[in-house]
Structure prediction request, 153 residues.
Amino acid sequence: MSHMECKTKWLGGLGFEAQIRQHSFVMDSRGENGKDQGPSPKEVLLASICVCSGMDVASILQKMRVDLISCEVNAQTDTTAGYPSIFEKVTLQYRIDGSDIKAEQALKAVRLSMTKYCGVSAMVVKASPMFYEVFLNGNPIGQGQADFSGNAE
Prediction:
C-alpha cells in the first residue's frame, strides 16, 4: 500500500496549483470563468490513464526482453451532459514500435494492463467503459475492452 498526498492552492478564477512531492502544475478550465492556465482536472485524469497504462505496457515488454523503440498511448473521450459530467467512454490507442516485437507480445502487454495492472483504469472503468486499439509498427493488430472483473487474463 502506498500513501499519497497532494496540496492545492487557489490561483483565482477556477485555477489551482497542485503540489505533489516536489512537482507542481496548474489546473484550470477553458470555460467562462477559467483562464486556461493549464489542463482541466478531467484532462489530467485522461492523461493519467494513458501514462499509467503506458508504464505497464513498457515494463511488461521490457521484461519480455524485446527491442522496444517507442510506445505511445493516446486517448479520446466525450463527457456526458448534465451534472456530474463524466467520461461517456474512453478510447485508447496504443502505438508500439520495435523491431522484434511479435503481435502476441504487444497484445498481451496491453491486455494485462487493461485487465490486471493499471490502477487508474481500474478506477475509471467503474464509471466509464474503456476500449482500446493496438498498433504495432504502424499496423493495427487488435482491440479490446478494459475488464478488471477478475474473469479476464
